[in-house]
Write a structure and sequence with these properties.
By secondary structure, the chain is mainly α. About 70% of the residues lie in helices and about 0% in strands. The chain has one domain. It is globular and about 50 Å long. The two termini are about 25 Å apart.
Length: about 200
């Protein structure tokens, strides 16, 4: 029986191309030109494509299985971007109906991710903490996407910063990765501890 080969360099190249494509798509104004719910459908399609890739591509699945769960959790410190949501809402540049719950929720999840990765020595022995954090983080993400969609449908202009750079990278790149990492964590914490 042959062992499935993973191709880490290829996955990083694909991620880089995705990031460059997201920057180009937003920079040329194509994202801003789309009326809701098309941007939301794009985010959903990207998220689904990422999760399905991890499920059906054997090499990618092997690579994901080798990721350290501490690193996966630490990736969520990127959610400190919620601070910027709160700043923009205070300036009246972003819908507060989205920015307030999403901003504070993201800050709380990011802070908890930082505490867990720095101060919980054995994540498998404390998997209850990881599962609770993962559920909270996923719920916050679902709420943020739902409130963003509702705000965009109600008043498209109130969500303008989210469809222009640099914040356009949140829905086009960061949100699908965050969603997929939550799904990955649910599977990973159920397994036996791996070597450090």
């Amino acid at each position: 029986m042959t062992r499935t080969q993973s191709h880490p360099a290829l996955y990083w190249v694909v991620a880089l191309l995705w990031l460059v494509g997201a920057v180009a798509f937003a920079a040329t104004g194509q994202l801003a030109a789309l009326a809701p719910p098309i941007p939301q459908l794009i985010v959903g399609a990207l998220t689904l494509a990422l999760i399905l890739s991890g499920a059906v591509l054997p090499g990618f699945r092997v690579w994901l299985a080798g990721l350290n769960i501490r690193q996966i959790i630490f990736f969520h410190v990127t959610r400190f971007v919620g601070i910027w949501f709160l700043v923009l809402a205070a300036r009246g540049e972003l819908a507060s109906s989205f920015a307030t719950p999403a901003g504070w929720g993201d800050v709380a999840v990011a802070a908890a991710a930082l505490v867990i990765t720095l101060f919980v020595p054995d994540l498998y022995a404390h998997r209850g903490i990881v599962i609770a954090w993962n559920l909270l983080g996923l719920a916050d993400l679902v709420l943020a996407v739902a409130t963003a969609s509702r705000a965009a449908l109600t008043d498209r202009a109130s969500m303008a910063p989210i469809v222009h750079l640099p914040l356009a990278l949140v829905p086009l790149f960061l949100v699908p990765l965050l969603f997929a990492s939550h799904v990955l964590l649910f599977f990973r914490v159920r397994k036996e501890p791996e070597a450090a």
